[in-house]
Amino acid sequence: MIPPSHPNPLRLGVNIDHVATIRNARGGPHPDPVRAALNAVAAGADGITAHLREDRRHISDEDIARLMGAITLPLNLEMAATPEMVAIALRTRPHAACIVPERRKERTTEGGLDAAGQFKQLSPMVEALSAASIRVSLFIEADPRQIEAAIRLKAPVVEFHTGAYANAQGAARAVELRRIADGAALAARNGIEPHAGHGLNYDNVAAIAAIPQIRELNIGHFLVGEALFIGLDASIRHMRTIMDAAR
After folding, report:
1. pTM surpassing 0.90?
2. Which of 6, 76, 215, 241 is the most buried (most CB within 10 A)?
């Protein structure tokens, strides 16, 4: 974990969704995502992220309730912009709620939320969550139009979708990195805290971690996959080391 004296700390949120994916492939209680969350905390995570999907393909309602009772670090609840999910967030009161786009047939989140196009739908949701002292984050592309919508929605946090950056090669990756850096600077100038996540791994995380305005990275699938070979503790600690060195 970053020492308190670090001049520009970068937090690591560990997403434990895919521990639940493995559990659900066979049914039963093992492996337990709550146990994984506790191990992540011990390994130096600054928070835990879990996506309660509408189809409950991995994390369950019971998992969220158990996480709220088991962990002392902040829980970041990823959720679709639906009345059902807002009601669950208001009932469970996680530290943060990250509103993400969601399509039933997608394997994973494929892009950022259209905060500009869905402004009227999102506005009362952001207001209700904020009124309950839940820190709202919008999972968006690092696009000025989307950042401006987040400003108008009064969201305190945006999380930039880094999937296009992670998938790009060569000059295309440099373009994506510049777009994220510019987006982080624009958000920070307007009082919004920028986060980032999706597709980050040991090989591509350093350049994102080096962007000074970004305050948190949320990483899950890679860490859980790497844990099959070196253990969850080691996978998280190594990611933490790369992030700290880039800072």
Report:
1. yes
2. 76
